[in-house]
């Protein structure tokens, strides 16, 4: 594991260079927000000692009061340890992240005639009805749920293996666990990959329920801003070893629709392997390739010494929102851990829905 902290003192000119181009008017809010961004991106390591307020003020050409207020703001965000005579030491917040606004379980509409598009779904494809009828009529012939019901129905697991084999990623049944949808898959992967209080990198913006999943068990979020320099910034964060895990959507990112290039995927996987940072890959939108674009292969590390990569997929977005069955494709060792975790969560996904998805 890469070193997660550094106790060196950073000189004022070096810090100002990291902060980037200065605005016409440097404010305390600008200084504090940019220092927080440097920490989140892994470019300013935890444990680093910031330059003195006086030297930083001189280098920024601002009053010392501006820098003092910036340090106070960082202290308010729990980003500094400050002791008289020891300077300001960079740290990660100890308190849990504030819950992120997400889907409201009890939405209120302005009028009875309004349609809430957050909960509206398209009707299922006729094939869904046909599969439901066929599976229901054959329930009496089901005599086994497989050797490990917590892992999934063997017929569906075989279909998932074929899905990855077609995409160029050899997969055996021992590497697959069926879940109750993608969100459940992300949750189980986080439990397997991290401990309570872990620091998890999450794309910003992202699907609103992902932060809600991460915030369970006092996990903290480091936002990874999705912009033109996102792949390089993510690679730098992973190299720094500050994250305990990261959740990314390399294929048709929600909401930007961006697809990570093959080269960017390789760099990110290498950085994660160096720091042994588990990656949780949201593949829920991978089938949305309506323009027939040639897609990179699944984002999985081939380094045996790297931390596991969890590929989380599902069909609720591509087939029907009411068919909430997903899966996790990972290493065999991680699959065993996931199957054991399932026993304390939900025992397994509904068998009828699994068989329906197999036929679709």
Automatic annotation (TrEMBL):
Keywords: DNA-binding, Pyridoxal phosphate, Transcription, Transcription regulation. Pfam families: Aminotran_1_2, GntR. The keyword Magnesium does not apply. PROSITE patterns: HTH_GNTR. InterPro entries: Aminotransferase_I/II_large, HTH_trans_reg/aminotransferase, PyrdxlP-dep_Trfase, PyrdxlP-dep_Trfase_major, Tscrpt_reg_HTH_GntR, WH-like_DNA-bd_sf, WH_DNA-bd_sf. SUPFAM superfamilies: PLP-dependent transferases, Winged helix' DNA-binding domain. Residues 25-93 form the HTH gntR-type domain. This is Transcriptional regulator, GntR family. It comes from Corynebacterium durum F0235.
């Amino acid at each position: 594991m890469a070193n997660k902290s550094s106790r060196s003192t950073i000189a004022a000119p070096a810090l100002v260079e990291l902060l980037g181009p200065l605005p016409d008017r440097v404010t305390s809010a600008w200084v504090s927000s940019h220092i927080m961004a440097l920490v989140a991106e892994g470019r300013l390591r935890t444990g680093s000692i910031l330059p003195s307020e006086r030297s930083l003020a001189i280098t920024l050409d601002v009053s010392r009061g501006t820098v003092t207020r910036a340090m106070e703001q960082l202290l308010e965000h729990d980003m500094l340890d400050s002791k008289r005579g020891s300077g300001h030491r960079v740290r990660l917040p100890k308190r849990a992240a504030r819950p992120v606004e997400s889907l409201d379980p009890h939405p209120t509409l302005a009028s009875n005639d309004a349609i809430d598009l957050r909960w509206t779904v398209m009707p299922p494809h006729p094939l869904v009805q046909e599969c439901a009828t066929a599976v229901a009529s054959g329930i009496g012939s089901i005599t086994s749920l497989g050797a490990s019901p917590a892992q999934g129905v063997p017929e569906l697991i075989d279909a998932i293996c074929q899905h990855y084999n077609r995409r160029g990623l050899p997969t055996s049944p021992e590497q697959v666990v069926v879940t109750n949808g993608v969100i459940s898959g992300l949750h189980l992967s986080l439990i397997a990959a991290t401990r309570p209080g872990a620091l998890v990198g999450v794309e910003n913006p992202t699907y609103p329920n992902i932060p809600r999943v991460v915030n369970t068990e006092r996990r903290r979020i480091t936002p990874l801003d999705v912009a033109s320099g996102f792949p390089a910034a993510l690679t730098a964060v992973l190299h720094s070893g500050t994250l305990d895990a990261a959740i990314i959507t390399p294929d048709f990112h929600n909401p930007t629709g961006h697809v990570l290039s093959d080269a960017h995927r390789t760099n990110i996987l290498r950085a994660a392997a160096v720091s042994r940072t588990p990656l949780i890959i949201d593949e829920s939108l991978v089938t949305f390739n309506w323009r027939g674009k040639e897609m990179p292969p699944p984002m999985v590390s081939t380094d045996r010494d790297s931390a596991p990569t969890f590929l989380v997929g599902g069909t609720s977005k591509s087939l029907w929102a009411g068919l909430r069955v997903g899966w996790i494709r990972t290493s065999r060792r991680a699959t065993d851990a996931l199957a054991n975790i399932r026993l304390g969560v939900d025992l397994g996904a509904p068998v009828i829905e699994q068989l329906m998805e197999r036929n679709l």
